[in-house]
């Protein structure tokens, strides 16, 4: 099976997908508008992912197992995920609040999707293999449709005082 990693930046106004190969090289980056309505946004993500994977299956860096182009799928959103309920909270895109976005994407795509706050994704990515790789503490700030911050310590995400792998 091919080893493509698909990352989604789910913003207040756009949905952007990046596809990386097993070595971390960027193969593809595309963006579409975010419809700004919950049910339509879930469908937009589903259709975008399935369309990208269909193209990956047919591309020169083709995957030998049809429909299995990506081995991991993660999405950063402008809000937090409640560890107790799995519901989105404190999102600047208020139509996401109190919705089970991760579970709904799992169902729509018929597989597990990792959903996390976008600023946490940014900080962890920079700490892992970005500009801050090798630093013991990384603080990242996102200023866009909303604003958020993420902290990584020793290349692990720091949430509520607990480092997570």
Automatic annotation (TrEMBL):
InterPro entries under this entry?
A: ATPase_NBD, ROK
What domain of life is recorded for the organism? Answer: Eukaryota
Any one GO molecular function term: hexokinase activity
- Which Pfam families does this one have? ROK (PF00480)
Q: Entry's PANTHER family?
A: D-ALLOSE KINASE-RELATED, ROK (REPRESSOR, ORF, KINASE) FAMILY
Question: How is this protein named in the record?
Answer: Uncharacterized protein LOC100900715
Species of provenance: Galendromus occidentalis (western predatory mite)
The gene for this chain is: LOC100900715
